Amino acid sequence: MFKITHGMWAGIILTFGVALGAKLLTPVLPALGSETLAMMLGLILGNTVFRDERWHSGIKWSEKYPIEVGIACLGLTLTLGTIASLQWQGLVFIGVLMVVTIAFVMWIGQKFFHVDQQSAMLMASGNAVCGSSAIASVAPAIKANDDQRRTAVATVSLSGTALLLILPLIAPTLMQQHDLWMGALIGGTVQSVGQVVGTAALINQDVVMYATLFKMLRVILLSVVVIYMAHLATKNTPKATDSKQTFGLKIPWFVMAFLVAVIMNTFLPLPHVLGQFSHQAASFLGVVNLAGIGLNLKWSTIKASGIRYLGYGFVTIVFQVLVATSLIYLIW
Question: 1 in a domain, yes or no?
Fold first, then answer.
């Protein structure tokens, strides 16, 4: 999981260096913040100076794993009382939004963008749950090929990046500066876990807390989505009945660590300094994540998606934001 090979070190050092550089530049450009600076620096450097393939594996590692540790650390800054603040509205919000997103994305993909069923299922899973992780989990279950998987990952990654840039600008106005509502909007729509934390961090740390909680609800439901998609693929492909697959409930380690940390922080007298350290660690690892996203986002990714898939992704995120906003006002 956290295994680092010799060839990764260059990219890892580069990503952490960009994050540290963004932190050092923050006092000079305080209006942008370290998170925005990290992503901007990464995007520029990743498409100019550091385009060589030798940086890729380390950057990819830095984008995926440090943020998982950061999310686990966030648990030490929360209590069950905080989670309880989501109440039944939070569960209803995520459940309805995921179901509606899956139904709409699959329908519009085949009806208007004329993509094949597997691609529509991958797009629906990636947008409804957790981006490339959901796509990687669903792809083998529905027997999607590598081209379908890569195109879906590229499109969902770009969509998530678009939300990362747009939501911090519009969320405060749409959600009337309400931290819980902004967290619901971001945690319910942005695709990957890292992008959720990164997007929320561009607003404030309270929004990070709420957005992470809403995102955790989506991640926990990943196995349910995988089972549903596998069942749907088998139902529509009779020949697939010969292959027997079982899907257990697989909850990512950092979700479990997050929940354990929350329980510990609720019932044990943990030192205050531990909570402060966890907060700072989660914050910096969020900056590392945004540096990785910037460095990893290549112009070739945009070309690989194509106009049709870019349109597909754009319509999807607009739909998600509109539905999420409507549900927030309806439920809360």
Answer: no
